[in-house]
Write a structure and sequence with these properties.
single chain; 581 residues; seven-stranded mixed sheet; two-stranded antiparallel ribbon; 54% helix; elongated
């Protein structure tokens, strides 16, 4: 009894002593077997015994089931940051007397296989959301939803939980999961309002528009992207960020309504952009800083306007907005208030949308030869070789609409071009044919008037041109804008003074007079996108004095270049007066 109690109270033998005992036993058996078996058989028995013992050692070191080796292989597959995060988590659990828990939020991803509030970072959750959205993985999105809405609190990800909720809402809207988007946005708005960022709000507006939820999109715009408070500095980085993303959100709203065939709502958004533009300029933001998608908005407006012309799209009911003759003009008015980057793609799309057809109608040498005054008209006047024809080609995005020549005085009659008229209407003027159909609502005339400063023509013909020009300016009823072109290299000369004097005496008050300084690229060595042209201060000063002396007042001055396309946006802003006749 004493021996048994002593045995029971003694500690259990170690694994090493047990394995040593087995090794000795197997060696004795093998040695005994060699007395009755051939040498080869005993050698094989010894080899088998040795392998069995080695296997027992491996199993005992792994705990008997091979889990240690699997755990080691799993750790080798982890990246260094993941290993460090796992080590820190294990130390924390041991310190608190807790055992490591297996993550419950499993994902269908090898890179990020699960989410845990102790080991996962904000970047892990963000990558998981992006992957779920790109692959339309509803299971992963549901797992992320449970993790962010039920598992973690506001301390997760060092205060970036609000941003993760906004990104989750955008992914949910992209996958048409309206309920999840509503839940994420509601929690973000109630618990993380101080940390909401304008960039996130603009992305949420785009997602709501994708879901055709215009009401909530406008609510987010007015709530989260409202204008800065009066009295605050607009050049403050926070206000600049707010203005930038409000402009981008309005651009998204306008573009979406145009492509959805809702012109009244789109024009309303364009008017809001036009009101925002001066604030953008005052804040010091440049065109590249804002990055407005003008090209896309113009294309949407052009598609919507095409539907208006064929009758498939009409004005929205219940929206009290006056629609222009061409919806693209609403976009143009908004663009005129924003900083311009003179982007070729944008203005090529603009010219193609506003000038769909251009036809040479007639050349007139007296007032009787002018076409009927049934639409608005814009005239270009200036001395010879000032660049009138090149400017007309630039704004219409045509290469040879108006003939250009290095010889001064090539234009020797009043050349009239019709924009957006009935196709083939030139036959009506030339041959008297009857052309059926109606002109487009935004149709207008462009008149290229001859210059006679350097033209090699007889004095009698110059006098006739002068008399015709005076009569045209004074009596042409549909004339809406007169562009006076002056060489930007030299400033006004005697011929320009005579034109200004004529305009000051004869031009009606309802006609807009605009001075255009041409060839600004000649004043720059190697003109580029950043420096497409300029005019000296002396030229501007001399021009202002000439305008004052001839009684034309403080009229607009536009600096242009047919080579670098400088000033085409300002030219089109005044051309719209002729189209909206």
């Amino acid at each position: 009894m004493g021996n048994e109690s002593a045995l029971q109270s003694s500690p259990p033998k170690s694994v090493f002593s047990t394995n040593l005992f087995l090794l000795v036993a197997f060696l004795l058996i093998a040695d005994g077997a060699s007395l009755i078996a051939p040498f080869g058989s005993s050698q094989r028995l010894f080899t088998i015994t040795r392998n069995a013992v080695a296997t027992s050692f491996v199993k005992s070191s792994d705990g008997g089931d091979g889990k240690g080796r699997a755990k080691q292989q799993q750790q080798q597959q982890l990246s260094r940051p993941q290993k460090k995060a796992l080590e820190r988590a294990n130390k924390l659990r041991k310190k608190n007397g807790m055992k490591p828990k297996t993550p419950q939020y499993k994902l269908h991803s090898k890179k990020i296989s699960s989410l845990s509030k102790d080991t996962s970072t904000a970047d892990d959750v963000l990558q998981a959301i992006k992957r779920a959205q790109n692959l339309h993985n509803a299971n992963d999105l549901r797992v992320i939803e449970n993790f962010l809405l039920e598992e973690v609190d506001e301390s997760f990800a060092f205060g970036y939980l609000g941003s993760l909720l906004s990104r989750l809402a955008v992914a949910a809207m992209h996958m048409d999961n309206h309920e999840l988007a509503r839940k994420a946005l509601e929690r973000r708005r109630t618990e993380f309002r101080p940390s909401m960022r304008p960039m996130e709000s603009a992305a949420i507006i785009r997602g709501l528009l994708r879901m055709h939820n215009v009401t909530d999109a406008l609510e987010v715009l007015n709530d989260e992207l409202c204008l800065p408070l009066e009295g605050t500095r607009l050049d403050d980085p926070k206000n600049q960020d707010l203005l930038k993303y409000r402009a981008l959100a309005l651009g998204s709203i306008a573009s979406r309504h145009f492509f959805e065939g809702e012109p009244s709502m789109a024009v309303n958004a364009c008017q809001l952009m036009a009101n925002l533009g001066p604030l953008i300029r005052e804040s010091g933001l440049t065109a590249s800083d804002v990055g407005m998608p003008w090209t896309r908005i113009i294309r949407g407006a052009a598609d919507c306007e095409s539907g208006r012309r064929d009758g498939s799209i009409t004005a929205c009911e219940g929206v009290n907005v006056d629609l222009p003759c061409n919806l693209v003009y609403a976009v143009l008015k908004a663009m005129a208030t924003f900083p311009s980057d003179n982007n070729d793609r944008t203005y090529e799309a603009l010219s193609n949308a506003l000038v769909r057809r251009v036809l040479f109608v007639t050349g007139a040498v007296d007032i009787a030869g002018c076409p009927p005054a049934d639409r608005g008209e814009a005239a270009f006047i200036g001395r010879s070789n000032v660049g009138k024809s090149s400017l007309v080609n630039m704004i219409t995005n045509r290469k040879s609409l108006a003939y250009t020549s290095k010889r001064p005085g090539k234009t020797q009659q009043f050349n009239f071009f019709t924009v957006n008229d009935i196709p083939g209407r030139e036959k009506e003027f030339r041959y008297g044919d009857v052309i059926k159909g109606n002109k487009d609502p935004d149709s207008f005339y462009i008149a290229d008037l001859p210059g006679f400063g350097f033209a090699k023509v007889p004095q009698k013909q110059r006098d006739e041109w002068a008399a015709f020009m005076e009569e045209y300016i004074r009596t042409r009823p549909n004339l809406r804008v007169l562009f006076h072109l002056v060489d930007g290299r030299h400033g006004p000369i005697d011929e320009d003074f005579r034109i200004m004097n004529l305009v000051g005496k004869s031009l009606p008050e309802n006609v807009q007079y605009v001075v255009v300084l041409t060839k600004a690229d000649k004043n720059v060595k190697g003109p580029s996108a950043k420096n497409s042209g300029k005019v000296s201060r002396d030229v501007i000063k001399e021009l202002r004095e000439a305008m004052k002396d001839n009684g034309v007042g403080n009229v607009p001055i536009i600096v242009t270049s047919a080579e670098t396309k400088l000033g085409r946006d300002d030219i089109w802003r005044y051309l719209s007066k002729a189209a909206e006749y």
